[in-house]
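User: What would this chain look like folded?
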Amino acid sequence: MATATASSSAHGGRMALDGGSARSVPDRVISNARPTRRAGIPWLARRARIAIATVLAAAGVLAGVGLLITQPGVRKLPFRASRRADPRRIGIAVHYLATTLAPRDVQHPAHLQQAATYLADGFRAAGARVLSQPFVVRGRTFENVVARLGPDGGAPLVVGAHYDAFGEFGGNPGADDNASGAAALVELARILAGAAFRQPVELVAFTTEEPPYFASPGMGSAVHARGLVTEGRKPAQMICLEMIGFFTPAQPWPSALLRLLYPNRGDFIAVVGRWSDRSLVEQTKSAMTGASALPVRSYAGPEIAGMDASDHRSYWRIGTSAVMVTDTAFLRNPQYHAPGDRPETLDYARMAQVVDGIANAVLWLAGPPLGSSPGGSTTAPQPPGAR
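Assistant: Here's the prediction, encoded as structure tokens.
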């Protein structure tokens, strides 16, 4: 049996012998049949390279955004205060506010008034100039307590915390939320009073942060912010202390992205702000990181659910850069707005580190000049019967 190929026909093809018969096979069929399979290999490789490049680019963008949001590489600003926060003093204040004066909600105005008086006494004992700011909401009178440090006049740095507690469904102790922040203000006054500030500083204990006044013009912080604007003293910066005492081995997160960007241990304090607050977030974090070994994490990015759920929101609304310092509140503390939010659940040693960090931030933001020390009174307020 033999196989032969004839010469090209008039049709531009070739003659092939198949079982003794001749048939015409177009040149393009012969020339294209085999290379078609080989051409697919480099095409698939190109697609793979494009896919890999796209994934890497997306990962790079995500990593870049993550770095901008979390600011992991901030420098540590050395601790500038001449004294440290005392965990015992903080614990005494929290126990008094969250035990003796519980519940501290709008349904118990006498307890709120006693809390205001206690905080004012603490500010005075530290040597601060104390101002009461009464205001009326829905026919009821409430009171912010303001401690002024540094020069009179000018745009102040405000550090604030609310002292009222949630009581919509019955009275709660409100230890972490927010006796912890209010007690921190009193300890800050002790550390900072007497410093030669180049900028006014106001430590403000707010009331009516909780419902039914939350997110309304009747919030104590909204009253304070509007008052400064009316005086022509719109605040330069604001730091809000919102739940700073609860630490735990596990840190829950509501989304996969947050789990990717932040630790899974609840052993840190957080500084939270918007994109426009990035500079203040970074300055506050740098000062807090330099003050102690307590881990400090930060978020400076788009507004997400819950990040405006405290008094800093009132200063955002007047155009002031403001940040919230928090233990992540309801994300971490299972006793949020509940009867279990009691003083014994808090970590006072870590709270003292948070206060040291805030004191350092205030000193770096508002003075005194390098080389000076804050000084101030060494006495602290004691609740009735504590001595």
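The two ends are 120 Å apart (CA to CA). If you want, I can go into more detail on any region.
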